[in-house]
Fold this sequence. Notes:
By secondary structure, the protein is mainly α.
Amino acid sequence: MLFRGKKDICKPKRKSQRNxxxxxxxxSIASKFLAxxxxxxxxxxxxxxxxxxxxxxxINKHVKKFFSKNPLNKEELINRFxxxxxxxYIFCGDAIEYQxxxxxxxxxxxxxxxxxxxxxxxxxxxIMANFENSIKNIKNVKVAFCGNNTPFERGEKGGFIEVxxxxxxxxxxxxxxxxxxxxxxxxxxxxxxxxxxLGQNILNFAPNESMQEFAYFIIQFGYAYIFMCYxxxxxxxxxxxxxxxxxxxxxxxxSGNKSFFEVIPDFYLxxxxxxKNSFNMSFTLDEVSMFVLKDENEKKGDLFxxxxxxxxxxxxxxxxxxxxxxxxxxDKTVFLKCHKEKDHYIERNEKYLCNELFDYLMIKVMDFLNxxxxxxxxxxxxxxxxxxxxxxxxxxx
Length: 397
């Protein structure tokens, strides 16, 4: 098996006990700060995790085939994905520009450091050949390639070249738009057809099972980078929404019974003509559009905080801190009956209902979770939502 061992995928080995302790401390601190940012933006973060989980674990036959043959189960691979995010979060620091993240993450030093934690030296060399040759290819650099004479190692097909092509051919704002809204809440079939899909492109070009393990690692690397771009977007929203006067303008525009698509151009015109110089950074039309959606997500979070369903079960959770037991103990019929007047769509789409129910429960309990517990539960969101979908309604409503 190419991986050093099943345990290593979740807890990478360190070179010494001292390095291990230092590394654990850094990860622990990063987990605390990342969890804080995610709690502050919970609904938007949850929507993004739904989207990214769908892309990494469910979207096409190539991904499903990979899981059917891979010796590592889905939970182990989910854990690895979040370790990649944490490593990038540490390197990213408090960046609020996408270019800063790009320059720190897509470097030979970072890619080698991260891949060395999960693969043996020989395998790392193959990944690095793919990375370095992919950069040469995307930049049309006519120099000798490193590695062996295979399309994967030459960076011609599969691996990082597909990540670079997707990022180069699509505006980052458009990619992040797929994270900000609930994918079950809108008719987005045309958008989905054009959204970034790394899984099919990368795994399709991996010639054998060995290369597919490398390829899937690169898929996770690519989506971890995109998730970190999303964190940066949410930081930019925090700067933007700090202008109270401008946010009052947004609330006034939305109170006039205008549609979302009518509000955006008027709001952007107000920002660009009257408020642009009050910020030390500029925001694109697409970013401002996402900020309007983000504001809607904030209001949904506030609504959930005001609701008071499952009092006894949530009280028990605060004592036992067992989220699995909480999921098993609730009756989703209660949520449907009590919440449908506030959100009619839950009556028409059970996946949406269960997604909303998960988010409601998380908002109610997340302040009682430590950073590690919070990140663990949110990273397995799709698994918990599936468990809610599998639960039967107790009666007709």
